[in-house]
Amino acid sequence: MKEKEEYNFTKAKQGAVADLTSNKKRITIRLDESIIEWFRKKVHDAGGGNYQTLINEALKEYISSFEGTFENTLRKVLKEEINPKFSNLDEFLKALSNDQEALSTIKKNVFLKLSRKKP
């Protein structure tokens, strides 16, 4: 096979060759070496792949474990805080809007319950 005497680079692009048209964003992140090695080992043990993809999947799974957590916790705290003297949630919320101390207590309880949640 004969080599070309001259190559034409006029349409060449400078930079990374990888196609970045996916919905992923390139970032720089610092992780503990032990974390990176753990994911690399998992990929190696599985017979190949990309450890960065595995990290991405682990983060997605972690995030999905919190779906609806805030809403469910808020509902639970509101039910616990509703005084029996209110016949419905609307009456309670109307009274609550005028009671900053009670509102502060509810916010604190929601925060405490969410901080105790484990994925």
Give a description of the structure.
There is one protein chain. This protein has 119 residues and is mainly alpha-helical. Among the domains are: 33-64, no CATH class; 69-116. The protein is built from 5 helices and no strands. It has helices at residues 33-45, 51-64, 69-81, 89-97, 100-116. Helix 3 crosses helix 5 (100-116). The longest helix is centred in the last third of the chain and has 17 residues, at 100-116. It starts with 32 loop residues before the first helix and ends with a helix. 1% of the residues are buried. The mean pLDDT is 78.
Provide a brief overview of the structure:
The chain is an all-alpha fold. It contains 5 helices and no strands. The protein is elongated and about 95 Å long.
Order of helix and strand elements from N to C terminus: HHHHH
Task: Give the helix level as a range of percent.
Answer: 55-70%
Average pLDDT over all residues: 78
Protein structure class: mainly alpha
